[in-house]
Amino acid sequence: MPDRILFHPLHDPACGSYAFAPQMATALTRARETLAATADANIHDPAEILTAAVGLDHCLRLLVAALDKQAAR
User: Fold this and answer.
1) Is 63 helix (H, G, I), strand (E, B) or coil?
2) DSSP state, 43?
3) pLDDT-derived band at 20, boundaries 50, 70, 90
4) How far is residue 21's CA from residue 1's CA, in Å, rounded to a whole number?
5) What is the pLDDT of residues 37-55, one digit of tens each?
6) pLDDT tier, 3 (very low <50, low <70, confident <90, very high otherwise)
7) Percent of the chain having pLDDT more than 70?
């Protein structure tokens, strides 16, 4: 195994943030759909876990953006 392993974070704040903030109902629906779709991911399959992590990270960021937008009212 090499001494140095390449590392790429799920999110790099230097690359920007979401400019789009969906309505709360839309963000919640998307989060619920993603949770349901990833619930049966095989934890022993790296590809499935990576796909689930990326999808959940995206939905969580959209949900936080929707909460921030709602709180700014």
Assistant:
1) helix
2) T
3) confident
4) 42
5) 999 999 999 999 999 999 9
6) low
7) 78
Enumerate residues 6+ apart whose C-beta is below 8 A from 34.
Answer: 55, 56, 58, 59
- Structure tokens given for 14: 């230097």
User: What 3-state class would DSSP assign to 18?
Assistant: coil
Q: How far apart are alpha carbons 24 and 20 in whole angstroms?
A: 12
Q: Which amino acid, one-letter code, is at 19?
A: A
Q: Are 41 and 52 in contact (CB under 8 A)?
A: yes
Residue position matching structure tokens 């876990």: 49
The encoded tokens of residue 21 equal: 């903030």
Angle, alpha carbons 65-67-73 (nearest 5°): 105
